[in-house]
Amino acid sequence: MVAAAALAEFARGGYHGTTVADIARQSRISPAYVFKLFPRKESLFVAGLQACFDQILDALAAGADAAQNQRPDAVLYAMGGAYADLIRDRTLLMLQAHALSVADIPEIGEALRAGVARITNFAKGRSGADDDAVQRFVAYGQLCHLLVAAHIDELDDAWAAILSHGIRHPD
Amino acid sequence: MVAAAALAEFARGGYHGTTVADIARQSRISPAYVFKLFPRKESLFVAGLQACFDQILDALAAGADAAQNQRPDAVLYAMGGAYADLIRDRTLLMLQAHALSVADIPEIGEALRAGVARITNFAKGRSGADDDAVQRFVAYGQLCHLLVAAHIDELDDAWAAILSHGIRHPD
DNA sequence: TACCCTAGTGAGTGTACAGTCACTCCCATG
DNA sequence: CATGGGAGTGACTGTACACTCACTAGGGTA
After folding, report:
1. How far apart are CA B70 and CA B7, in angstroms?
2. pTM of this structure
3. With CB atoms counted within 10 Å of each terminal CB, which end of chain B scores lower, N or C?
């Protein structure tokens, strides 16, 4: 599926650093046919980003299921753990980082906001936590992006330990 | 100064979306001369990023000065306010977002980690706050990046209000 | 057979960009 | 005057990329 290839390739190279030909190659079709399926490069990126948020939502739901009937904070905590596991391989996380950096392309900004909205609404609705807890949930998710994208979680320095505390990293 | 131009231009277009010619134009010198001053495009980006962190550190210091002799959390809070004011114009913030997305380019990842280290160490040392408070400080800073870069802080929806609560946005 | 439709491609076009190089201009010093 | 060197550039090269277009192969249906 082309959207999956777009997800993987854009996650590696970013929007400007990935060519349509890269995605065509991974999808085993010609660049020309990619443009038959998606009118512009942006549409391709958006398709990848939507697939990314689909996977995230699935993981959050699975995490919440595992903490059924617990108190709101516990459900949120379980979701956080599921998310931390999910982004172990950096793909979904890097795509979000790239999306943020090209959020000024209208179509992409729109898709990014829609994804964040889905996550926020789901976290709030499914856990029943109060607004502050949901905000903190998202804030620490963003911290996680910084740590993993910049490989800070692999460092041993004191400052890195402060930032990474309580956040697992792939071993 | 070329580093200032690099900061401004890379903040607008990102690493791959900005040409050396753009920066040359804004610096009022020829592209050829840019390459006399900086051997590679990456070096230019790094110079801009360092200038960015210099400005941030200055702002944090000014914020901390304004809260002299107060308790650690108050100092940290004042720094947060100073930071929120500083990134009103999106430039410094967007450059960080772009840097994160190309952190896999070794020279850039290095510079980004160095900048985050400076901020973390300064926040910790100057406020005297405990590790958890410093981690939270950085996490909410990252949330701030998401909100501003994706224009979420300008939205009126309920989910956007949850995420933006307590974070001022330019009016 | 004649027709059409879906899935797909090869070969290109025009443009834009990182990086190079030989060169000029001008000023300071002996 | 000569000469050396810092500041700066015009013109170029090779490559890479988004996007287009005319085309084919093959299967289903009348």
Report:
1. 34
2. 0.93
3. C
